[in-house]
């Protein structure tokens, strides 16, 4: 398995400096990642391994904001066992990191920060590969908030959904990734579209989960959108290329249709959370389908 590189990619949005940290490598079944799209089509874009898994990343976003450091999503963390990481093909530590240090923390350190500097954590949703780094294990084996000075933000409906799982959803939601935040009274639960701090807002983009949200960063007439699992990789830009993991795929379709139309019209810079190689891009419709705009 090859850890996605580079560890950190940086851009500007107006006067705001933003950094995408590759918080880990991940491999998931290609059929599950592309849903009803046949392998003969998706395999032309991305290669599968001998277990039919495709290489993915777990990109997080750091925003240098006047109100403090903002982190969007936190990767898978390092609390699970070796069997779990093998099943999901997760690599949480790049070779250039100190032994035992997660890629997310290595990326923060590369930027000159540590967990205490983070003031706000926004989760697109609470699946283990997006919220696993919310917490850490203490020496006595209990989970505690990793970003002790931060307020954590998620849709209220997503928190309720994560804490009331069923046979389909239980495999994606682990209480030790979000319950310690509740115990520490660090959650800010929001409902619908809203501004979290000046220039940073959330937009409901349901489908992958009923209360999934994407994150918008606006400054100086420019807009960046962190898509989360609405469009996990650049390969998923065509409207019907939707993951089999989505609990409401037809809702995903309409969320994608609306957001990508706005993104093309207003020339947003997009962040692809799970793409192993393409972190940032802009979208264009060629008359048939959405795809990446020419550089």
Concise structural overview:
By secondary structure, the chain is α+β, with helices and mostly antiparallel strands.
Please, could you describe this protein's structure?
The chain is 19% helix and 31% strand. The mean pLDDT is 95. It is built from eight helices and 17 strands. A hairpin with a 2-residue loop joins strand 10 and strand 11. With 295 residues, it is α+β, with helices and mostly antiparallel strands. The protein has a seven-stranded mixed beta sheet with strand order 1-2-3-4-5-8-9. A six-stranded mixed beta sheet has the order 10-11-12-13-14-15, covered by helices on one side. Strands 6-7 form a two-stranded antiparallel sheet. The radius of gyration is 18 Å and the shape is globular.
List the helices and strands and how they pair.
Layout: E1 8-13, E2 16-29, H1 30-34, H2 39-42, E3 53-65, E4 68-72, H3 82-87, H4 103-110, E5 118-122, H5 128-131, E6 135-137, E7 143-145, E8 151-155, H6 156-162, H7 179-183, E9 187-190, E10 194-197, E11 200-204, E12 213-219, E13 222-226, H8 249-266, E14 269-271, E15 280-281, E16 283-285, E17 290-292
Parallel strand pairs: 4-5, 5-8, 8-9, 13-14
Antiparallel strand pairs: 1-2, 2-3, 3-4, 6-7, 10-11, 11-12, 12-13, 14-15, 16-17
Largest sheet entry: 7 strands, mixed
The fraction of residues in strands falls at: 25-35%
Computed CA radius of gyration, to the nearest angstrom:
18 Å
Distance between the termini: 28 Å
Mean pLDDT: 95
Low-confidence stretches: none
Total count of helical runs of at least 4 residues:
8
**SSE succession:** EEHHEEHHEHEEEHHEEEEEHEEEE
- Helix content class: 10-25%
Broad structural category: alpha+beta
């Amino acid at each position: 398995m090859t850890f996605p590189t580079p560890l950190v990619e940086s851009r500007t949005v107006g006067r705001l400096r933003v950094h995408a940290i590759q918080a880990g490598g991940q491999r998931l079944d290609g059929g599950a990642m592309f849903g009803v799209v046949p392998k003969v089509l998706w395999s032309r874009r991305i290669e599968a391994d001998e277990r039919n898994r495709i290489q993915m990343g777990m990109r997080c976003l750091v925003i240098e904001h006047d109100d403090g450091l903002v982190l969007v999503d936190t990767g898978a963390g390092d609390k699970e066992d070796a069997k779990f990481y093998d099943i999901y093909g997760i690599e949480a530590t790049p070779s250039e990191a100190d032994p035992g240090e997660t890629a997310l923390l290595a990326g923060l350190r590369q930027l000159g920060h540590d967990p205490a500097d983070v003031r706000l954590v926004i989760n697109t949703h609470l699946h283990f590969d997006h919220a696993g780094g919310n917490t850490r294990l203490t020496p006595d084996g209990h989970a505690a908030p990793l970003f002790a000075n931060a307020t954590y933000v998620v849709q209220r409906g997503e928190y309720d959904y994560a804490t009331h799982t069923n046979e389909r959803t239980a495999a994606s939601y682990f209480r030790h990734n979000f319950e310690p935040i509740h115990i520490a009274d660090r959650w800010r639960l929001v409902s619908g579209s809203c501004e979290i701090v000046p220039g940073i807002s959330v937009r409901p983009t349901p489908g992958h989960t009923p209360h999934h949200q994407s994150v918008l960063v606006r400054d100086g007439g420019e807009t960046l959108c962190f898509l989360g699992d609405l469009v996990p990789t650049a390969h998923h830009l065509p409207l019907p290329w939707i993951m089999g993991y989505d609990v409401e795929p037809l809702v995903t379709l309409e969320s994608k249709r609306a957001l990508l139309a706005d993104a093309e019209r207003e020339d947003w810079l997009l962040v692809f959370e799970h793409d192993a190689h393409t972190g940032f891009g802009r979208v264009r419709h060629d008359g048939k389908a959405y795809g990446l705009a020419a550089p």
